[in-house]
Write a structure and sequence with these properties.
The complex is a heterodimer of chains A (about 325) and B (about 260). Chain A has ten helices and twelve strands. Chain A has about 325 residues and is α/β, with parallel strands linked by helices. Chain A folds into two domains: about 130 residues, 3-Layer(aba) Sandwich (Rossmann fold), CATH 3.40.50.970; about 100 residues, Rossmann fold. Chain B starts with about 20 loop residues before the first helix and ends in a 10-residue tail after the last strand. Classes of the chains: A alpha/beta (about 325), B alpha/beta (about 260). At the A-B interface, α1, α2 and β6 of A face β2, α2 and α4 of B. β6 of chain A pairs parallel with β2 of chain B, so a sheet runs across the interface.
Chain lengths: ~325, ~260
């Protein structure tokens, strides 16, 4: 990116740490720029405070987290999906964000563009939750001639800068355009002014910040449903998608279904109801069942969490064994 | 037009304590900006957390009140994304030198075209009067109840060593000098750092035998040693009093800078 972005008229800067990287993309976003940063593991933990600032101030920005084995320094170059709960709940306070998970290089490309569109539309940090396996992968990709770009809805002059429209999202008052907007991480009123001791105002603000994402779950969702009549249904996101695809390729069995998620947060729980005959969900994840727990909240059938740590993908044989064990 | 037109009238009254020195520093900064002829639409104020960091909220321009210690990192993003904007950072000693110390030295090293005005009250004023990295030896705070035993930072020496193009120190007593220093800082391409020592009657003064606000301001005045006088003492081989702090223009140079308006 350091080599390519300046050639496209953009700006690249290497900050001193991930705290500063997250801060600088928020600053850049307020000038109207589309801004992103990328990290892995510990750097993502360092970004958490400023991610909360971006949520509170409704700053559109994109963060790529190529997940590695944790906790701590863990396995710097081995794949994992251990940050799926951190991305959702890692920053303090009640927040809502959008997280996308690519399973191949083509999706790494397409979901990055989609992340910017979602960030601009919903004024929220959007996360590309890749993993080391996809991150280090080399594959053929098709680069389209053009991609749709969602514009950032500008604030109508004379309107209050943090007064939401019907979609719960306020127009964006870009710096340098004469809005004279005050942006603060403190609880603020619709003028953007701090008002941190008013309980009703705080509750209304935080509920709106969460509702604007949760209520748009259908619009944000991106998933595939394969064999909806199946009794055994895999659910996967990120690199484990590839193992499930191999199993389904090897066994053309209509009784094996697949919910393949690209949007993981907000979690599209209504997609689970599409599998009318399901007897059990099987969830291969490169963690100790972080998203399996989310699925369990929404279904009455068993959820088999197929957990793997250490950096290797599940083998097709491991998934087949789980299929046949039940 | 006067610098008073830069204030948000609908945000008054402000939160500063009676006798606080921060208002003086904000006035001096806005007066300097007014002299520069900067437009409100082209000027952005950025701050972190603390008393000093509430300043942008009272100013009519676009402003970004961010997280503790990170103001300079946010400001770097604003400036790099739009070099046409004039970006000024308000910060304090805790915000800048403790939690934000790393961003401070790296911004000096990059020599990014920002002006940083530090209201140094030598204590954490907003959070209960804890000692900060600039609390002088022996001074009382809630975390140094028997007197500070840690040697304080010299923020200006830090900025000079790290590479800032312009560095100046004054106090809330020296309003004319301070206003002029801020103006030179605004004019200078690259990183400009202006430290303003301020009285804090609530958290610092009342614990350190400054019964009246004026006593503390008088202390700042009488313990200021002009840089030219300090240099003369050194030249004559005489000792520099260690209970005084050097004021004046401490660095002005033309190192390569980042983010300068083309």
């Amino acid at each position: 990116m350091a080599a390519k972005i300046p050639k496209k008229g953009g700006v690249f800067i290497q900050m001193e740490d991930e705290i500063a990287s997250m801060a600088s993309i928020i600053g850049a976003a307020w000038t109207g720029a589309r801004a992103m940063t990328a990290t892995s593991g510990p750097g993502f933990s360092l970004m958490m405070e400023n991610i909360g600032f971006a949520v509170m101030t409704e700053t559109p920005c994109v963060v790529v987290n190529v997940q590695r084995g944790g906790p701590s320094t863990g396995q710097p170059t081995m794949g994992a999906q251990g940050d799926m709960m951190q991305v959702r709940f890692g920053s303090h306070g009640d927040i809502a964000i959008i997280a996308l998970c690519p399973a191949n290089v083509q999706e790494m490309y397409e979901l990055t563009a989609k992340a910017f569109n979602l960030a601009d539309q919903y004024r929220v940090p959007v996360f590309l939750m890749a993993d080391e396996i996809v991150g280090h992968m080399r594959e053929k990709i098709i680069i389209p001639d053009s991609m749709a770009k969602t514009p950032r809805k500008a604030l109508t002059k004379g309107s209050l800068p943090f007064k939401p429209d019907a979609d719960l999202i306020p127009g964006f008052p870009q710096f340098g355009k004469g809005y004279g907007v005050h942006v603060t991480g403190l609880t603020h009123d619709e003028r953007g002014y701090p008002s941190a001791t008013n309980p009703q105002l705080h509750e209304a603000l935080v509920r709106r910040l969460v509702d604007k994402i949760e209520s748009a779950s259908h619009a944000i969702a991106d998933f595939d449903i394969i064999n909806p009549d199946a009794e055994q249904v895999f659910i996967a996101y990120g690199a484990p998608v590839r193992t499930v695809q191999q199993v389904m390729h090897d066994r053309s069995d209509k009784n094996i279904g697949f919910l393949r998620l690209r949007t993981v947060w907000p979690f599209p729980e209504y997609a689970l109801a599409e599998f009318k005959n399901v007897k059990r969900f099987l969830m291969p994840e490169l963690n100790l069942g972080q998203m399996a727990r989310e699925v369990e909240r929404h279904v009455r059938v068993p959820v088999v969490s197929i957990q793997k740590l250490g950096g290797d993908l599940h083998t097709p044989a491991e998934l087949v064994a789980e299929l046949e064990a039940h | 037009m006067s610098y008073e037109d830069w204030y948000r009238q609908d945000r008054l009254p402000h939160i500063y304590c009676a006798g606080c020195g921060n208002g003086t520093i904000i006035n001096c900064t806005l007066a300097a900006i007014e002299q520069m002829g900067w437009k409100k639409d082209d000027t952005v104020f950025v701050s972190g957390i603390g008393c000093s960091s509430r300043a942008p909220g009272y100013i009519v321009t676009d402003s970004l009140h961010t997280t503790h210690g990170r103001a300079i990192a946010f400001a770097t993003g604003v400036k790099m994304a739009n070099k046409d904007l004039n970006v000024v950072v308000f910060t304090g000693d805790g915000d800048l030198a403790a939690i934000g110390g790393n961003h401070f030295i790296h911004a000096c090293r990059r020599n990014i075209d920002l002006t940083v005005v530090c209201m140094n009250n030598q204590i954490y004023g907003m959070t209960g009067g804890q000692g900060s990295p600039t609390t002088p030896l022996g001074c009382l705070s809630t975390t140094t109840p028997t007197g500070c035993v840690e040697t304080p930072f010299d923020l200006c020496e830090l900025a000079i060593a790290a590479g800032a193009n312009y560095v100046s120190r004054w106090t809330s007593y020296h309003v004319k000098e301070l206003e002029k220093a801020v103006k030179v800082g605004l004019e200078t391409p690259g990183f400009s750092f202006i430290e303003a020592l301020v009285q804090c009657p609530t958290a610092f003064g009342r614990r350190n035998k400054f019964r009246q606000v004026a006593d503390h301001v008088e202390y700042l005045r009488s313990h200021s040693l002009l840089k030219v006088k300090r240099d003369r003492l050194i030249e004559a081989g005489e000792p520099v009093p260690d209970d005084m702090f050097v004021v004046g223009e401490l660095a002005r140079r033309k190192r390569p800078a980042l983010g300068v308006k083309p």
